[in-house]
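[09:14] KT: can someone run the structure on this one? pasting the chain below
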Amino acid sequence: MTAYADQPWLKHFTDEQREDVEHPPSVLHTFLDVAARIPDHRALFYFDGALSYRELDALSDGLARHLAARGFAPGDRLAIMLQNVPQFVVGLLAVWKAGGTVIPVNPMYKQGELAHILTDAGATAILCSERAWQGYVRATVVDSPVRIALTASEFDLQTRDDSRVLTGERPLAQAGEGADDVLTAARAAAGPRPGVPLPAASDIALISYTSGTSGKPKGALNTHGNISFNAHRQVRVQDLGEDAVIFALAPLFHITGVVCQVSAALAGGHTVALAYRFEPGVVLDAFREHRPTFTVGPATAFMALLAGPDATAADFASFRLIGSGGAPLPPAVVESFRVRSGGLYLANGYGLTECTAPCASVPPGVEAPVDPTSGTLAVGVPGPGTMVRILDDAGAEVPFGESGEIAVTGPMVVPGYWNLPEESAAALPGGELLTGDIGFMDEDGWLYVVDRKKDMINASGFKVWPREVEDVLYTHPAVREAAVVGVPDAYRGESVKAYVSLRPGATAGPEEIVAYCKDRLAAFKYPREVEVLGDLPKTATGKILRRELKVRAG
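[09:31] RB: done, structure tokens below
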């Protein structure tokens, strides 16, 4: 038996939290149970609007009936291309009730990106915003498999016109030629859901296309079993209570949004608060109005919230737990957040689309350690029912404390990628996910992520992990965001270049930041060049795009 097989991380969980429910009921099963048991409990808040579990159940029943009447059959796929609006959740549940699969799509995708996904996934239907339909989606679906189109207005189900996020005027007419308004269609088809079997654990719930930050997007196959395992584990471990309000900070089209926000809420009988899309002032207003108890998002989002002139500790007073994931979390940001939020601890986490969101997190009531050698903050410990191993280049386990590739096994790991058998076999040999991330684990089971395998910089034969340099940059009092890339160097082969943005009102020149790092890092690690930008490029989920910065660096 190997050391990893002893699962030292389980010591951080209580017996109740460690209860291994490998095959919990699907989130749809649980939602239907909650809707029958407490039908008037709030399921969704959206600005000043709300939907109860009864209303959400009825609308999703009606939409499922509408889809079935239009020929949408079990196994068919519907793309949802929306911001954080209630219609996203209605569409998600309706597709599952109709026996289908949802393809979450980033609404910032352009025509070519959308066309690739619709064609690659063989989408039967699409649900998008009215503006997107009238702008370019209608033309895009002409040459795609899509034959059913639904649209949604961000102005529906609430009365506010907040120009900070809800841009433009209310449409005079709903939907558009060739599409049906999703709420109108759901109400018109009101009645019992279609008589198809509820999903089995092995049925595909989502085809989640990877962000493409590391290559061409691939469709990860998240099953109902994958989602229910992580959703129910979150409910069991966090124990937020049925009165919990989960604020949807992460986009719903991202795996974190679907699993850690919507699915966990519906599995626990909680309420989800939506605010269309991330804008710091709007999010803070929603915190004040809905008093959420939990949220999760990237460190960049929390830095943006705290940078606002109106942010106060009182805005965060209702939270029982806050999680960070999707982007590296420097220790300096944790401490800054603690001070500005009135003592709240920002709990780290680690996951991938292929892990159906988290596979490691910081258990409630404890704080992640910082590795004394590298200064890296632990991302958490693997959850109950999860096996994490650290492997060398030959696929053998390395001892505790040594770095290697992180490999994950468990009920949350996807079975593969859509129509990519070779890529699936390479990434998931024997069902174990090879993440492509480099990390190490200590003897107490704390997992540390060093960096992406492909992002390692080779400076004069020395390995430099960008994450280590970024952690130092974040300790500079003027630095708000930081990213490090390798650039060609005639002498060293590669050298380190840093891109930073500054805190509001702060000043610092490149020479000052270089000198700061030189005092704190080995000679081969400190950045030889620093470029100051207004903002660093990011994905829609807040992950800084090193790839774009590398292109910029030439």
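[09:33] KT: thanks! The mean pLDDT is 91.
[09:34] RB: yep, looked fine to me
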